[in-house]
Amino acid sequence: MKDMGSKLLLAGLLALIAAFGGAVTENVSAESSYRVVVGFEEGTSGRYRTAVEGEHLHTYDSLNAVSMKMNRKQIIEMQKKPEVAWVEFDQRVSVAAERETWGYKATEPSKARSWGLTGEGVNIAVIDTGVAKDHPDLNVRGGVNTIEGSTGWADDNGHGTHVAGVLNAQPNNRGTVGIAPDANLYAVKALNKDGDGWESEIIAGIEWAFKKDVDIINLSLTTCSSSIPMKKTLEKAEEKGVLVVAASGNKTPCNGRYLPDVMYPARYDSVVGTGAVNDEFQRAAFSYGGNSLDVVAPGTGVYSTYVDAKTGVNGYEYLNGTSMAAPFVSGVFALNREAYPHYTIQQLRKEVRDRAKDLGPKGKDKDFGHGLVQAPVNPFKDVSSGRWYYEPVRKLYVDGTVTGFRNATFRPDGKISRQDVVTMLGRTLNLEEKDSNTGFPDVQENSYSAGYISAAVEKGFINGFPDGTFAPRKNITRGDMAVMLNRAFQFPEAGRSYFSDVNGRYYTEAINAAAKAGVLSGYRDGTYQPSEPVSRAELAKALYESKEYSSR
């Protein structure tokens, strides 16, 4: 048995099932049998077609063709015959669907996806055996090879491609889908075709990832011993605000004994140590646990992208291992990074720990850490499902109309300023931001709202006060909100009054028109209270209803 103290090993186990398709490669033996379809020239007799050397499968009279199994030599000879019009390799086809695996469902990224959270804008480096460059279900932005004497970051093992797919498989109706499909994926080939590598080459890969300004590094690899250079490198990652996720390790003895804690680098405090559970949410038999275990994730029967090391053919594979669990956690961190862009990595780690589903004894334990990792539900801590404003806020967040605050809140009951209303209205209507010189002396040209205020003035949606000011920071009233919405969406005239306290003022027509359109509503006592300030939730609902009305 090799000494595991100096070399790094993949944290994966054996493959269970492979399903490959694609073109024949030069690595396949000349004696291999291929499925082909042979087309014949017009007038070629059926007797000749059936006499062709090879294993006949189907005859197509309408095409004047046959499908066969032939070896390479037979195919070459067939192509030379004057009676043959063409020879095509038979292609594999599959249903136009992708598989949401049990691991995907267990970590619940679909909730985050309903809010548009897909990892967009988050940079992730997978330091592994490389990634298949041309796999149709992956979108790799670039890569590097840090192995001495080796070039190219293509995967010649399969492990790295599988890890990448758990993270980043594309929602393209094929294969499977990753936890963070819109994250920017970078491949670092630091492990060889056997899945082995040196710490020095892993560290070089981490240094390269720093230069790419990555947010997350996935290390689905293990070693038995701590080392000063690796520990310092990972501490530097933490200082730089880079999250590092590592596999806890499969239960391989180190120098003849089992470790009392997770393997390295998962054991370092600066790293999120990740163990594996099976589909019954029990600790996988092979998964190392211990005091340093942070969380667990699906690690058995994980279906993901793969490349066959011998043929180079892209496909999909079921694998087991803590290697497979780690990218689930990296993907969940990517969703959290997108949802909470102002969080520090310490805040992100706390968020993931707090949201984890407790599986063992209450609280953190050696088998499950803080529990099964879960994707974020939505980007706002104070917007919960079931509230009357939940769906409007969700829809407007997805299309980029509303944003929250740095502490991950929306503050639905908070008052909203006139400049914020114009900004949200401009985003809703996709107004082109105009010259930041608005003409209002109290609107600064470098203000985030200045361009939208200029555009809204040009469109006639807003105007200022008699003294020539706009009062951008003043809370907007319910009456003024109705006026802005009515000018922007042009609701039809109401023809009557809907509220007892709305009569004869500048906002009367706008309020009644918006009420008739179903955009605005009043209170139980029959009033609208036009002079009252508008809450952020009320504005979100009004904008949402206005968009719905205009799309009918």
Q: Rough shape?
A: globular
What structural class do you assign from the helix and strand content? Answer: alpha/beta
- Cα end-to-end separation: 70 Å
Count of alpha/pi helices:
15
Oligomerization state of this entry? single chain
Poorly predicted regions: 1-6, 12-29
Give the biggest beta sheet: 7 strands, parallel
Strand residues, percent: 15-25%
Q: Estimate the mean pLDDT confidence.
A: 89
Radius of gyration: 30 Å
Number of strands: 17
Give the helix proportion (percent range): 25-40%
Trace the largest sheet across and list its strands. 8-9-7-11-13-14-15
Active site: 128 (charge relay system), 159 (charge relay system), 323 (charge relay system)
Pfam family, one: SLH
InterPro entries: Peptidase_S8/S53_dom, Peptidase_S8/S53_dom_sf, Peptidase_S8_Asp-AS, Peptidase_S8_Ser-AS, Peptidase_S8_subtilisin-like, Peptidase_S8_subtilisin-rel, S8pro/Inhibitor_I9_sf, SLH_dom
GO molecular function: peptidase activity
Describe this structure in words.
Keywords: Hydrolase, Metal-binding, Protease, Serine protease, Signal. The chain is built from 15 helices and 17 strands. It is 28% helix and 17% strand. The N and C termini lie far apart (70 Å). The chain is globular, with a radius of gyration of 30 Å. The chain has helices at 46-51, 72-80, 102-107, 109-113, 159-168, 199-211, 228-239, 322-339, 345-355, 390-398, 418-428, 450-459, 478-489, 508-516, 536-550, and strands at 7-10, 12-20, 33-40, 55-60, 65-71, 84-89, 123-128, 140-145, 184-189, 196-198, 216-219, 221-222, 243-247, 272-277, 295-298, 302-307, 314-321. Residues 1-6 and 12-29 have low confidence and may be disordered.
